[in-house]
């Protein structure tokens, strides 16, 4: 499967074997694969846009592989945190389809601005999953060059990155990299809670006024830590967009195909000069907010169970099985790969060195600062004063 | 007898409960303060007992929290706002420094904004970025705000109630790494008899060096004093408690006796509280000082990765090192 | 005319003498009085709400009087600034109808949160127009108790007051003062430029989530200083509301009747527990942004002229004349009252004393501060040291 | 010969123009910076000559200005953001202190945010509230930001270009009450030869007292020095220019000679720049000081009504009063 461009290849296409027009469920929700693994031929967005995908078997299998790997690596990180190897972990459990679908819809030159939970998008960008673990282990504060990976650093301050994404997208326009088939686009990830932040709404204003080639991708996982969606809004979030002058659509965020289709369309519109749009990926945070959180304090088991039935991976597997696109050997092989990669990840986390304390004085300023030089020197002298002592 | 052993966090929780009981106008607002009881459980159980009109889970936006609290205060309420972590107060900065701080002045004294802004602050808990900030200088430099912090459960219990009862807008900094530390709390002593909110306190008398600290660093300094005593040096430790206004009467008196002063805080050194303390003590005790006032602080870098925070934060050894230097000047 | 409640009286009613359904112009714009002074019987908002007014002759004359007085006092303030008696003035010229219409729609117990330009609303609240001049003269920083006048202090930081209004309105609900005929409501004034601020959008979120009894009243005067509306939005501003889950309507802000009708309805909905709404009063800033501004740098004379034809006062006068609700004696009497009040205002401004310098240390904190006591004492000693000297 | 007499405002305008010419990645963004040329006309004519893709009128939201500028910087641009008045920078505070200041550090040095945030600051122009603030301590206390200010047209012209050329994020404070003051500006001297951006400068040598100031107060101190000279006292006046990092080599050297120091700024005293200067000078020059370092500053109130700002702001007399006090200690 062509990384970042599964829609671009041919071979044995298997478009919507069990054709079914319009999701059985919510008319507001774009869905192309039901929780039972039934393919829906095409779905219509609120503005009449038709969404469909046309994947090869190979590509379907690739998406399944992504989903399984992303979940497994995430579980490994959670385990590492439980064992004290990470200080914290924000699991994406339940949100794999939204992330893999949107992540795979990105082209190589598109730029993504994640929150702290987009491990799945990161994976789809072809980035080593070890990369964000320094932050969560506490050995660095992010530590990568956004431009190298076309993936911004994780952003913890809620909503701040949506403005960065907007500015970046304005820069795409200023660079003349918009309006053609090989135009560029940016995507800003954020949560349902984030929609209440001033910054996110200012990003909506800016993106609209400057017609920025940007996709706002909101993973509505129903919670902002303990607060359910109704603490942030009383209408569906995708509707926020219209009042700012651009389209919004709600997609089944547990459906990797629909998530892909909707994001791909939005990105293509953006790169062709049609400006920003908002995607609300309707999903659910199956686990805790982070490893520090205890969700039993604020939500009931039955709610979680009801979402279990909408699992983003099971439905793809059901589809692959029913359509005989994949067999037991394939599933076993994917599981084995996931196991291998997670073991590999674990090994590398365990061997991540602690930073030298004195490095904390580095990289405060590109041009340095005499104050820090002085503090670094003092610190070194101070540390040396203990050398040889029992300290 | 109502003296109980409580953690600092539980003492705050109990103090908040008392405030909600005492005054029906007191309300608590913030992210996750309701069902969850806050990420540090400081508001645990309060929504259950006082209802969601008094303990309000807000939308996720700090400017909104403080801005609506201003309106509620105009309406006669006494909002106690929780900011989830120190690093997340900045979206509310405009509301705090341009609105909350100035309302009383702008109105020519006709309107008060009796608001408490609770912020867990400081490092030492192994957190990721934005979760270990020490923003006290930003607020203490701001005219119109008062700023206090507590270092032990007893103070936590009393000071939070005093802050809520005060008509001044108060930034209440909670030393998050001390939330789990225990101490005796007298739950019965009437608030009216309590030690004044804006007064510093000598927490260990001594004769050789005056050590000034607040919040999380008080304990560090007390430990340093214990260690110093073993070496025959008596540190006088003062818990400032009020960061704005500062109460330096005890400090002046102390420094005039000891001739030496060390100021300790986690926040970066440059234009921090330590600078102000050094400047004022020097002005007041100019002829008594045997050495300049020395500062032991976080460094002037962004808060570093958790695995090096131990070296970033002032600890017992760094305090003692500074004490030594005041003698070697 | 019953202050704050012109709709509540009876006597000789003259509802829409020249009936005309739906404004000739923009179907998006609620209008009840055309620029030519023709009454429109009723107008329909975007959500189907019917707006109409039913004023007595006395009330019509009262509105005219308000408009003329407000304009005259404003002009006097501008003149005072030109003569150096005020440091600055933000004129409402052109926005009289939006302000008088909405201001008269308020009931006595409703609370208003102005920007720095709502002199007309202030006047309708029955407040002495001298009150805000201390701020502009530089002798105080606002200087009144919002609760005394049910009118918050002027707020210069763009958008900040919308959150205050929202919190205040939440307090109305918490006080149980909503849901009945004598419920209370709040109104937040802001400009078109303000809609880009995070705070304003956060206020939308909050008001919606808490169903606050609040009217967001946006005077779209087409400019934020030099920046035309398209720097803030590419769709009509009233449409912003729907995405936050409450209704929005655009009213002809140069039409005092429509401004009244729309605001009255929105306030009544709010006080009855139907939550917030947004009114976009479509108007024009005829003058400079403030006396410091030079609008010729950024807009052309013909644009201003085209709005001159939509003047909010001329149309009311035309209507009163055509309908013989008022005669020359009345107009002369109003002019004379305006002259008198403005002379009176001027006299009082000229005699506004400078504050004693030492008062700058007062009212920093309700409970005072030893630091300020010390600084005050030092300041007094310092000032005394000059006494008797030539200084 | 390209030495011209320019106002400080025009010098900034000319420096900005030069920066736009020199580097196509330089862009200017802010409220009213385009057609209007900014409320102080500092960007006058620039949009006309460089187009609206380089000089961008933004929506009215400061967090948006700084936040989108961060994104533009990631994309390779060098944004110069104008904040219309000092009092309106606070809505952008989170983006400035949590994002702009920390990006380089967070990336482990891999990403730079070469941004300049221009802020007209300080009082003395008879303005209404929020238009006369001196927020420098907030920024200078923030690790990861650099802060500079200019006091004369020549520095304005050079420093704005240096700031834009620097890869560090820089808060550039413009002394608004000095915008209209004139001075000689050498328009031809190459930037590479210019006096370093982060260096202080002795603007008047003297022997009796060291006076430290920056931005709008430099002129006030020079006037005080002239007056003092008439009384036979020679003040050495140092223009700090860089508020973070501070360059105190000249100050230390000076105080060691004079034994006396006075620090002057408009911002409130409490935890202001003056505190830091006093603390450092005392530490470095402990045995040379004949009196404590004294501060002449705005008071710890919100900025007062315009009609009393003259008494609020440090003036010649207050500087001289402090000078006197250093002698009477
Ligand atoms: C400005 C700010 N305020 C508070 C927080 C603390 N916090 C971290 S995650 C979170 C909830 C975010 O909810 P949402 O946007 O829905 O994203 P999710 O975590 O559900 O993916 C909060 C309140 C923060 N990181 N930043
Ligand atoms: C936060 C903030 N930023 C900038 C300013 C400077 N400023 C004062 S009025 C104004 C324009 C406001 O436009 P709008 O909201 O349309 O109201 P209008 O003045 O047109 O009534 C600006 C930018 C301010 N007062 N507050
Ligand atoms: Mg969420
Ligand atoms: Mg406007």
TrEMBL record, chains A, C:
Cofactor: thiamine diphosphate
Region feature (Disordered): 1-31
SUPFAM superfamilies tied to this protein: Thiamin diphosphate-binding fold (THDP-binding)
Record CDD domains: TPP_E1_PDC_ADC_BCADC
Record keywords, A-Z: Oxidoreductase, Pyruvate, Thiamine pyrophosphate
GO molecular function (one): magnesium ion binding
EC number: 1.2.4.1
Domain Dehydrogenase E1 component as annotated: residue spans: 67-353
Regions of compositional bias (Basic residues) in chain numbering: 11-21
Gene Ontology BP, a term: branched-chain amino acid catabolic process
Pfam families registered for this protein in UniProt: E1_dh (PF00676)
InterPro entries: Alpha-ketoacid_DH_E1_comp, DH_E1, PdhA/BkdA, THDP-binding
Name of the protein described by the UniProt record: Pyruvate dehydrogenase (Acetyl-transferring)
Species of origin: Micromonospora lupini str. Lupac 08
TrEMBL record, chains B, D:
Superkingdom to which the source organism belongs: Bacteria
Keywords, in A-Z order: Oxidoreductase, Pyruvate, Thiamine pyrophosphate
EC number: 1.2.4.1
Residue ranges annotated for the Transketolase-like pyrimidine-binding domain, each copy included: 6-181
One Gene Ontology molecular-function label: magnesium ion binding
Segments passing through the bilayer: none
Enzyme type, top EC level: oxidoreductase
Cofactor: thiamine diphosphate
Keyword S-adenosyl-L-methionine attributed: no
InterPro entries the record matches: THDP-binding, Transketo_C/PFOR_II, Transketolase-like_Pyr-bd, Transketolase_C
SUPFAM superfamilies to which the protein is assigned, alphabetical: Thiamin diphosphate-binding fold (THDP-binding), TK C-terminal domain-like
Entry keyword Oxidoreductase: yes
PANTHER family to which the protein is assigned, alphabetical: PYRUVATE DEHYDROGENASE E1 COMPONENT BETA SUBUNIT, PYRUVATE DEHYDROGENASE E1 COMPONENT SUBUNIT BETA
Protein name: Pyruvate dehydrogenase E1 component subunit beta
């Amino acid at each position: 499967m062509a990384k970042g461009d599964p829609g671009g290849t041919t071979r044995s296409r298997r478009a919507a074997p069990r054709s079914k027009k319009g999701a059985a469920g919510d008319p507001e929700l774009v869905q192309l694969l039901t929780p039972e693994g039934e393919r829906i031929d095409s779905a219509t967005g609120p503005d009449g846009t038709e969404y469909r995908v046309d994947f090869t078997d190979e590509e379907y299998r690739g998406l399944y592989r992504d989903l399984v790997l992303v979940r497994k690596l995430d579980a490994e990180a959670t385990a590492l945190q439980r064992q004290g190897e990470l200080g914290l972990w924000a699991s994406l459990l339940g949100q794999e389809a939204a992330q893999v679908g949107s992540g795979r819809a990105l082209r190589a030159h598109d730029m993504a601005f994640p929150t702290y939970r987009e491990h799945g998008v990161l994976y789809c960008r072809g980035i080593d999953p070890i990369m964000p673990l320094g932050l969560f282990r506490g050995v660095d504060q992010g530590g990568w060059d956004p431009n190298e990976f076309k993936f911004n650093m994780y952003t913890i301050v809620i909503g701040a990155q949506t403005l960065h994404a907007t500015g970046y997208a304005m820069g795409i326009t200023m660079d003349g990299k918009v309006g053609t088939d090989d135009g560029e686009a940016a995507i800003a990830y954020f949560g349902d809670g984030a929609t209440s932040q001033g910054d996110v709404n200012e990003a909506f204003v800016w993106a609209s006024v400057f017609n920025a080639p940007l996709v706002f991708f909101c993973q509505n996982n129903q919670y902002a830590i303990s607060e359910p969606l109704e603490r942030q809004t009383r209408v569906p979030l995708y509707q926020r967009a219209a009042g700012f002058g651009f389209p919004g659509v709600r997609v089944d965020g547990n459906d990797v195909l629909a998530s892909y289709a909707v994001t791909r369309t939005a990105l293509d519109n953006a790169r062709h000069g049609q400006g920003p749009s908002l995607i609300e990926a309707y999903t659910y945070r199956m686990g805790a907010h982070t490893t520090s959180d205890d969700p039993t304090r604020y939500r009931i088991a039955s709610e979680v169970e009801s979402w279990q039935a909408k699992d983003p991976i099971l439905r793809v597997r059901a589809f692959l099985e029913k359509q005989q696109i994949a067999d037991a050997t394939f599933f076993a092989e994917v599981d084995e790969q996931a196991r291998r990669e997670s073991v590999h990840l674990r090994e590398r986390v365990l061997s991540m060195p602690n930073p030298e304390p004195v490095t904390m004085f580095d990289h405060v300023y590109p041009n340095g600062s005499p104050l820090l030089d002085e503090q670094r020197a003092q610190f070194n002298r101070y540390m040396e004063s203990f050398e040889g002592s029992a300290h | 007898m109502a003296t109980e052993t409580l953690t600092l966090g539980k003492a705050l929780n109990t103090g908040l409960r008392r405030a909600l009981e005492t005054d029906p106008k007191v309300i608590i607002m913030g992210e996750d303060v309701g069902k969850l009881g806050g990420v540090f459980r400081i508001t645990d159980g309060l929504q259950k007992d006082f209802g969601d009109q008094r303990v309000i889970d807000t939308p996720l936006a700090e400017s909104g929290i403080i801005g609506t609290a201003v309106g509620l205060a105009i309406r006669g309420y006494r909002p106690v706002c929780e900011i989830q972590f120190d690093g997340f107060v900045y979206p509310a900065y405009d509301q705090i420094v341009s609105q909350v701080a100035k309302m009383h002045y702008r109105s020519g004294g006709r309107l008060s904004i009796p608001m408490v802004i609770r912020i867990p602050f400081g490092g030492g808990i192994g957190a990721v970025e934005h979760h270990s900030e020490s923003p006290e200088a930003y607020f203490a430099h701001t005219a119109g705000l008062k700023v206090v912090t507590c270092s032990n459960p007893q103070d936590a219990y009393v000071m939070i109630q005093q802050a809520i009862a005060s008509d001044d807008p108060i930034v209440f900094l909670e030393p998050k790494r001390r939330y789990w530390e225990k101490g005796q709390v007298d739950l019965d002593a009437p608030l009216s008899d309590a030690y004044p909110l804006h007064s510093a306190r000598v927490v260990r008398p001594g004769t050789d060096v005056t050590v000034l600290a607040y919040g999380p660093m008080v304990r560090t300094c007390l430990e340093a004093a214990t260690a110093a005593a073993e070496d025959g040096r008596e540190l006088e430790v003062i818990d400032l408690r009020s960061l704005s206004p500062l109460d330096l009467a005890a400090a002046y008196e102390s420094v005039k006796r000891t001739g030496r002063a060390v100021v300790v805080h986690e926040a970066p050194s440059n234009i921090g509280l330590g600078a102000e303390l050094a400047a004022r003590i020097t002005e007041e005790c100019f002829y008594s000082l045997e050495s300049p006032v020395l500062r032991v602080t976080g460094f002037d870098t962004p808060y570093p990765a958790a695995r090096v925070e131990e070296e970033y934060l002032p600890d017992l050894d760094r305090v003692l090192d500074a004490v030594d230097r005041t003698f070697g000047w």
